[in-house]
Amino acid sequence: MKKQAPAVQPPVKPSQLADIFSAVVHTPFGGMGIRTQAGLILEMVYLPRHYAEKDATDAAAAKAAKQIARYLKDPGFRFKLPLADVGSAFQKRVWAAIAEIPSGQVLTYGDIARRIKSAPRAVGQACGANWFALASPCHRVTAAGGLGGFSHHDDVDGFYLDVKRWLLRHEGVEGY
Question: Fewer Cβ in 10 A, N or C end of the chain?
Answer without folding.
Answer: N
